[in-house]
Each structure stands twice: as structure tokens, then as C-alpha cells.
Amino acid sequence: MLYGHVESLADRVDHLRYLRDLQDETRGFVGFVPLPYQPENNEIPVRTPPTGFDTLRTLAVSRIYLDNFDHITAYWVGMGLKLAQVALSYGADDLHGTIIEEHIFHMAGAKSPQLQTETELVKAIREAGLVPVQRNTFYEPIKVWDGTALVEAEPPAAKSRMLEENLATA
User: Would you say the pTM of this structure is higher than 0.90?
Assistant: First the structure.
């Protein structure tokens, strides 16, 4: 859900309600990714773009309202790694990934780095007091960083592995 541009807070709640109802009906979503609007380099006039407080509030309300979604993502590209790290205490349980080269948010004016290394993400998650887990598209664990040792997770189910091998996003 893109937020922080032309919608009201009531519009955001309506959007969350529609998502919640659709998830109850289909169980088709594996996660929810709220995306803060980037106001630079576009034609949409916005008086007050999303602040850090607005981003954390949106994540927290999403976690409470979307209790039928297993995962909420703090998209570090749109909010920066430090705020995404804080978001792990405001309802998010996912930082997304080690994106190699992101264009859409940066074309819109995002100031975050083009990429984050695995080491940087592991450090940020540990600093938040959590255990880093690398996951696949279906949120199945691949690697777990428990303490100082890296633990290989159990391989995903055969059905998911087959899907992953045939999906461009896996």
C-alpha cells in the first residue's frame, strides 16, 4: 500500500479493511508491505509527505488491524535502514532483502543506499535484539543467524522449491 500522498487517514483504514476482508476470504497474501510515498521527481502535489512518525504509526496500525497477515515488511529502501530497524519494534517482522539495485524509489527521490549487504542487514536486525533469518518468497527459512553461528534451516517443502525454481521473483 502506497501511503502519504493524496489519501486521508480514513482512506488508509478503508484500504486496510479491504485487504483484511480479502485475506479472510482468500488467504492469498503472504505479507503486507506499506510503502511511504517519495515526493520528489513527480507531479503529485503533497503538502506533508510521510514522516518517520507517520511511517511507524502506519506499520503499527497495520500490524494490529491486519492480524490475519502473517508478515508485515519495513521496506528499508523507502524509509532508510535505521527507521526500518526501529520498525521491527512497531509491528514489522521483515526488512525485505539485499536488493542489488533499486530504481523506482530512487527515481522518486529516495535517499537510501542502492543496496544493503547481508552483513549490514544481519547487524541491523541483531542490534534490534532479534535473530536474523533469511527467507524465501514464501517466508520459509533458508538460514538462521543464531548467536555467532550460521545455522542452515531445513530445506523448504518440495512444492515450494518447485515454485521457487519457476518464479522469477523467488
Answer: no
